[in-house]
Structures are given as structure tokens and as C-alpha cells.
Amino acid sequence: MFDTVVIATDGSESAARSVETAVDFARRFEAEVHALYVIDTDEIENSPAEIREDLATAIKSAGDDALAFAEDEAGGAIELVTAVREGDPHTEITTYADAVDADVIAMGTRGRDGDHAFLLGSVAEAVVRSASQPVLTVRQLEDAEPA
After folding, report:
1. What is the pTM of this model?
2. Rounded to the nearest 5 degrees, what angle is found at the Cα of 39, between the Cα atoms of 37 and 40?
3. pLDDT tens digits, one per residue of 123-144
């Protein structure tokens, strides 16, 4: 039923929980997993010129760490492909998922504060609205919540 799972990760705690959940999901279905990190080029381009190079290096390093975490979670028990793309995150995630013929996209989400706490984060919401595949969103647990 699920042969290919794309996990969109940004290295956040919410994304780490989605990696753990999606890897477990993929094991159950013996699915191939693609861990994807997107470098948001707008974030770099819209930063002051004097810090762009350092920011780009830091973002790339965060991506390497996020993908290494996914590899560690997979532990060799499932096939894992890692990929880095540059551009608009939600566009790159959905384009990549289509390119690898993914059956599902998994990603974390952080709720917004205040009255809108039930809403998805902006990238997750955009992916849910535009993806041709089902999207498994995994919310970050509060410190006091049991896993």
C-alpha cells in the first residue's frame, strides 16, 4: 500500500518527531524512505548581505544534521535516500514527492500560539493543500504529554 515515503525535515523538534514516526510507519510497510531537507533560498536572499554566507553555511549544516538524524533513525533497517533541494520549501517538497512517486509525505508541524494554536505551520499547511499525495503531519508533543 505504501512503497515510498517522503519525510520533509528541517531539523526542528517537531520534525524529529515526524522522522521517528515516519520511519516506524515505513518499517511496518517495508517502504523506501526519502528524507528531504529544503534550503529556503528566500531566507538567505532576504538577509543582510554581510551575513548571507554565514547564514547559508549554518542552514546547510542544519540540513546535514537533520538528514544524519534521519539516517540514524532508519538504522539500516529500511532503505533511506537523502536529498537536499533549494527553493521554496512547500514547492520543493511537493515537487520532490511527485518526482519519486511518493505514496505519502510525512512532516512535522508546530501549532501557532494564541487563538490559532490548532492551525498547521505555514509550510505544512501549504503542503497539505497542494500535495497530490496524503500528508501525515506529526505535531510536537508538549513536555508534559506522554508519547
Report:
1. 0.86
2. 130
3. 899 999 999 999 999 877 665 4
